[in-house]
Amino acid sequence: MSALPELHYLPFGFTELSNGIMVLVNQGGEHLFINRDDFNHILDNDIDRESDFYFALKDKQFLADDHDLEIQLDVLANQLKSRKAYLDDFTSLHMIVVTARCNFNCRYCHASSANEKEHDLDLDWSTAKYIVNKIFESPSPIIKIEFQGGEPLLNWPIIKDIVEYAEIVNRIAKRRLEFVICTNLTLVTKDILEYCKSHNIAISTSLDGDQEIQNYNRKPRGPIDGYKVFEEKLTLTRSILGQDGASPLLTVSKTNLNSLPLVVDEYIKHDFHGIFIRALNPYGNAVDNVNTLGYSTEEFLKAYKNVLNYIIQKNIEGYHFIEYYAALLLERILTPFSTGFVDLQSPCGNIISGVIYDYNGYVYASDEGRMLARRGDKRFCLGHVKANTWNELFKGDVAKEVVKASCVECLPECATCAYQLYCGADPVRYYAENGSLEGHRPSSSFCQKTKGALDYIFYLLSLNDDRINKVFWSWINY
Question: Does the pLDDT at position 441 exceed 90?
């Protein structure tokens, strides 16, 4: 009788969920739910080779024998290659701050925007032309230019100049060129929207809740009701750009943390079909007002689980509505594909996927790096568009340092985390929290929030509820 082929366990991480179910995740991102008894069989190396459990481990590349080890390793390698595909094209998202001025003074403003009368904080044409030329030196087949502020529409003429110059340059470059304006909507006009329509410019805006919440968090500098103007301008935007002409972004503060289901109702009231439950970040005014706006990670996760359940129930009842943060995580869990969300990439998406050009021509590794610079800390400045070449900006010492510090496979605690393949590291965030690019994972709010969200999503998946599973797959396939 011939000896059985030797078994080889392929690399995987594991964690235990709140219901006692173990989740295994291999180096290709495949996951498997098992009970404690099956986990003990792995620990004791006494798996029944005729059992369904044995074949489940082999089917998902957790286990191989001498006969198929090379094939299983090739499958894992291809899965990992697919998940890192975002590295192929380099920088595609180019954010341009056309002004640091704003007609609002939001309590949590991460960008520390200035009074709208300070015109020396506007991007000029000379610098803008350098920025566009630098952007098109990127090797990416996709060029997405996102106009930010302050309030970008306070410098509308330079937006038009950039759009038209970029379109001219692209006649030769032949990239897939996209534009987005991030605006509070209050300054949009019919003429501006007609221009956006003719040049395929998308609109991103902000909505934090009902009239009371919106007006409390997002304070106009002038005597207007920001919420009412938002509603009026949203109607105008949709009349020209279509029903999906403006995409809203939520910031979760203490003012809406415990009423997120009502915030979802507000989104549904305005006929939106998705929301990104975005936690408060430690930058700008949010730091100054942390005592009135801040909350603990535990409080956020409790509220997140509550509103996620609420949104799932809305979908089950027939209203298609996506929670985009969960959708991003689910796409990583349930598919082998790369996703473009810069916070959940390893190496991180800073510089590799997106970069930001300030109104004065300085280039930063990320929007958060620019936010720190507004408070006097230029730690993440890559250089200047007029003084530095593309290679000096994107392959310089700062760029290399940021990328090196963002590979979760090499970072303490991340290297052994079960969720490594679904997560990422943001050196700028870690630096803002404790002054170190590598950070301290046990005390990192980013780490705790992401792990907590993944724990709960895996818990919901482990229930194997057809209704929940259908909702989750509809979010991925939207």
Answer: no
The CA distance from 173 to 376, in Å, is 36
Note the pLDDT of residue 1: 47
Q: HSE-up of 342 (CA within 13 Å, CB side)? A: 22
Q: How far apart are CA 394 and CA 57, in angstroms?
A: 42
Residue 393 in tokens: 């900006």
Pairing of strands 7-9, 63-65: antiparallel
Does residue 356 sit in helix, strand or coil? strand
Strands of 381-384's sheet in order across: 246-249, 201-206, 176-182, 142-148, 93-97, 354-357, 362-364, 381-384
CA distance 91 to 169: 17
Contact 425, 436 (CB under 8 A): no
Two tokens, residue 399: 């760029």
Contacts of 435 (CB under 8 A, 6+ apart): none
Query: CB-based contacts of 450: which residues, under 8 Å, 6+ apart?
Result: 344, 419, 423
Angle between helices 324-334 and 445-462 (to 10 degrees): 70
Return the pLDDT at 2: 56
Q: Is 285 helix (H, G, I), strand (E, B) or coil?
A: helix
* Phi and psi, residue 302, nearest 5°: -60, -45
For residues 459 and 181, what is the distance between their CA atoms, to the nearest angstrom? 37
CA distances from 332 to 49, 251, 292 (A): 30, 23, 35
Q: What is the pLDDT of residues 224-265, one digit of tens each?
A: 999 999 999 999 999 999 999 999 999 999 999 999 999 999
Length of the chain counted residue by residue: 478
Integer Cα distance of 217 and 212 in angstroms: 9
In angstroms, the CA 35 to CA 53 distance is: 11
